[in-house]
């Protein structure tokens, strides 16, 4: 019969083998995320260059409207919408992957002991896919809203002149949102370690939930990006750093408040410029 020491040694060996397999699969996940991030950044840079070549439409009030929101160069509305959604997905992959990866690693730690390596990979894909669906639906809504506003601004000059002032107000509200309890709750949900079954349905629901929580947590920063310029690479980089920092820093709530203070300060400058121009 197997003695206690032998059984303990076998159990220890199995535990070490499982731990080594988990570490190996985590390295694969990090590598895949890094490749997707690099590809999405390259695609975003290429799209930004093409949009810069197309130029923008000067508007009353001293601002310019991006051609993202309108069919130009013979494009149909369907093609314009498809181009925007494709750009949105690529851009969100570049901006959200750095903060999503720790969430995926927490999920894998939570369910990894109850799933084989192959099944764990499938569950991770389901979580990521559901997360992407949430952001894709949000992109469709953003395009519908942005295209509608662009049409109104082209029709009513008074509305167009008010855009710089409205942008400053949006940035102020986004900064204030960073101090709210609602923001703190959404941030806590994004950082929490999951406790759920290791099955496909649970993985899909978890992906949808973290997608919704992430979209809510990023609502203020996303609004700043939309009103200040989606094709501004410096702003995109700043929002990416801010989003990642408040997710991975030890005290994310404090980082969020610091970001809010910066946003309010920038909004003050935007409001002064808008009022001076008016």
UniProtKB/TrEMBL annotation:
InterPro entries in the cross-refs: PpoB2-like (IPR018688)
A Pfam family reported for this protein in Swiss-Prot or TrEMBL: PpoB2
Keyword Cell cycle annotated: no
Presence of the UniProt keyword Transport in the record: no
Keyword terms: Membrane, Transmembrane, Transmembrane helix
Ranges annotated as spanning the membrane: 80-100, 120-144, 156-177, 255-275
Annotated protein name in UniProt: Putative metal-binding membrane protein
